[in-house]
Structures are given as C-alpha cells and as structure tokens.
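Narrative of activities, Objective 1.

The group set out to show that a structural description can be obtained from nothing but a protein's sequence at a throughput compatible with the screening campaign. Below is one input-output pair from the validation batch, recorded exactly as produced.
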Amino acid sequence: MQRKEAKGGILFVDRAYHLIPMQKSDDKDYSLEALEEMMSVMDNGKVVVILTGYSEPMKCVITSNEGFCRHVTKFFTFDDFMTEDLAKILHLKMNNQTEGSLLYGFKLDPSCTVESVENLIKTVTSDKQRKKMNAGLVDRLLVNARENLDLRLSFDCADTDELLMITIEDLKNELR
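Output recorded for this entry:
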C-alpha cells in the first residue's frame, strides 16, 4: 500500500508480528523498512494505524525498533474465546455465508445446535488447542467438516439437502 492511499484513513495491519524479521541477515526482508514507513505516517497524525496480533509476538514488534514504542500509545488485550463463543462463531459463519465462500450453500444439520457444538468443542479439544487457534479453530473445523461430508456421502446420493448438510459427526470427525 502506498502512503498516500492511507492518508486521512486507517491502516489496519493484521498479524503485525510478521513485520519483524525472522532472520537478521536476510537482505530481502523489508520488515524494518515497513515499520519505519509506518512510524513516519504515524508522525503526521493523518492516519490511524491499528496493529493486531497475539500478545507475546506483538511485544517483539513494539520493541523491535527503539522509536516504535513511542508511536504506539494504546494497547487493547482481548481474552481468548470461550467454547460457547466458538460455537456461536461457527453458527454465524454458516448463517452468513457470501456467494463465493468455501461453504456457500452448505447448511448445519439441526443436531448442530450451539449447545451441541459447544459441548463437542469442549470435550474433544484441549485448552491448549483452543488457546493456540482461538477463532481459527472454527475455520479449520468447518473446512475439514466439509471434507468429512464428502467422504461420508456415497456416489449415488441423490438427496440435494444431504449433499449440503454438515452434521455433528462431520464436525466431530475433524476434532479427533
């Protein structure tokens, strides 16, 4: 993105911890230059810069450049999602699909209530898994549940609803 494109607006950098170099000797790494460029944009006050990422790696971003910590003045920390939140996110994603999305047209079986999905996530995943993946667990769960649906169906299945219906078993098989 060009500086002038962000002027007067918001520059949102997701997973900003990727801005710090992985190897100090890599000549093709422009991450420190990107941080310096962001600092110059932040100096003029015409752009709001929002950096997101996991807490620990973000601390490395903030300390990677002596002047950068002066430019970052507000910090917000959000708790990891609870299992009920993850189940609700799964339902939101399935109920608000857009054309062209990977799961467009697919539906959840009525057995996939928020409560049953929450219970499934709670019993089949570990706290460590949920903390590491957070809401990304839902994306992985849905994509792989679709693959499980494909494996579950027979070649002569003619029921259109069945072809597009993700069951609790499809979700469960992913989490094993």
